[in-house]
Amino acid sequence: MWGGRLARHCRDSYFHFIYLHLLILLEENLSLKPYPSEVLAISYALGTDLVVQETPLDYDDLPEVCPYTLEQGLNDEFLPE
Q1: Which in 1, 41, 61, 73 has the greatest CB count within 10 A?
Q2: Does residue 68 form part of some domain?
Q3: CA distance 70 to 37
Q4: Among 11-15, 56-60, 69-73, which is the least confidently predicted range?
Q5: Count of domains for the chain
Q6: How far apart are CA 62 and CA 81, in angstroms?
């Protein structure tokens, strides 16, 4: 799924959108901090929508459920293989 230069760019954009949504949701909604799995699910859904809009990927190309942990999602140095 992630072979080639374009695919790598899409993968990096995909993860970056999820990361940004996690940060925004947690910073703007402190009351969500006790609900990490819900925050990750919302961030994943919003990030997936952006990826479909901004890259050649479609919803069918992406996992239905976020394949990353919250810790991975909040780690600005983590990039999936």
Answers
A1: 73
A2: yes
A3: 7
A4: 11-15
A5: 1
A6: 14
Looking at residues 49-67, what average pLDDT do you find? 85
Please indicate, yes or no, if residue 9 is contained in any of the structural domains: yes
Residue tagged 């009351």 (tokens): 31
Q: Which residue range forms the structural domain that includes residue 53?
A: 5-74
Q: How many CB atoms lie within 10 A of CB 55?
A: 19
Give the separation between CA 45 and CA 16, rounded to whole angstroms: 13
- pTM of the model as a whole: 0.69
Contact in structure between 80 and 15 (CB atoms under 8 Å): yes
- Beta carbons of 49 and 79 less than 8 angstroms apart: no
Asked whether residue 38 is assigned to any structural domain, the reply reads yes
Say if 29 falls within a structural domain. Answer: yes
